[in-house]
Amino acid sequence: MLVISATAALWFLPPVLMVCLWVCFTDMKYMRILNKAVITLVAIFVLIGPFVLPLGDYGWRLGQMLAVLVAGIALNAGGAVGAGDAKFAAAAAPFIHLGDLRFVMALFAATLLAAFASHRLMRATPMRKLAPDWKSWETGSRFPMGLALAGTLALYLLLGALYGATPV
C-alpha cells in the first residue's frame, strides 16, 4: 500500500497522464521538454491540489517543488541533467507523497531501465521507420530522459489510485 491518498491520485491521474504522454512524445521527437508542458503540470497541481490534499500537505508539496527545482538547477549547471528534465522533475515533485519517496526512486530506476532498453531497441530495428523524423534516434549516446521521468510519474499516480491509502 502506498502512502499517497487513492482519492488524490485518482483526481490527479487523468490530466497528469495527458501531460506525461505529451512530454514523452516531444522529448523523443525533438529532444525537448516544452515549458508549456511543465507549466501545465504545475497548473494541474495548483488547481486540483487544494481540493484533494489537506492544506498543510499542499503547502509542503509546493516546498518539495522548490527544493527539487533548486537541486535540478544545480545538477543542470554541473551538466548532469538537461534543463527540461530538471524543470519537469520539479513540476512532478508535488504529486509525490514524501512517504512514498523510496518507492518512487525504485520505480524510477525500473522505469529508466525499461525506457532506455525500449528506446535503444526501437532505434536499432526497422520499427524506427514508424517515426523517421524523431531526433532521439540520431542523438548518439543522449537519451530522452522525459520518457523515464514522465513514465515514472504516470505509473506512480496509477499505482496510487489503485493501491493508495483510503480514508478511515
Automatic annotation (TrEMBL):
<dbReference type="GO" id="GO:0004190">
    <property type="term" value="F:aspartic-type endopeptidase activity"/>
</dbReference>
<dbReference type="GO" id="GO:0016020">
    <property type="term" value="C:membrane"/>
</dbReference>
<keyword id="KW-1133">Transmembrane helix</keyword>
<dbReference type="Pfam" id="PF01478">
    <property type="entry name" value="Peptidase_A24"/>
</dbReference>
<feature type="transmembrane region" description="Helical">
    <location>
        <begin position="103"/>
        <end position="122"/>
    </location>
</feature>
<feature type="transmembrane region" description="Helical">
    <location>
        <begin position="34"/>
        <end position="53"/>
    </location>
</feature>
<dbReference type="InterPro" id="IPR000045">
    <property type="entry name" value="Prepilin_IV_endopep_pep"/>
</dbReference>
<feature type="transmembrane region" description="Helical">
    <location>
        <begin position="65"/>
        <end position="83"/>
    </location>
</feature>
<keyword id="KW-0472">Membrane</keyword>
<feature type="domain" description="Prepilin type IV endopeptidase peptidase">
    <location>
        <begin position="17"/>
        <end position="116"/>
    </location>
</feature>
<feature type="transmembrane region" description="Helical">
    <location>
        <begin position="143"/>
        <end position="165"/>
    </location>
</feature>
<protein>
    <submittedName>
        <fullName>Prepilin peptidase CpaA</fullName>
    </submittedName>
</protein>
<keyword id="KW-0812">Transmembrane</keyword>
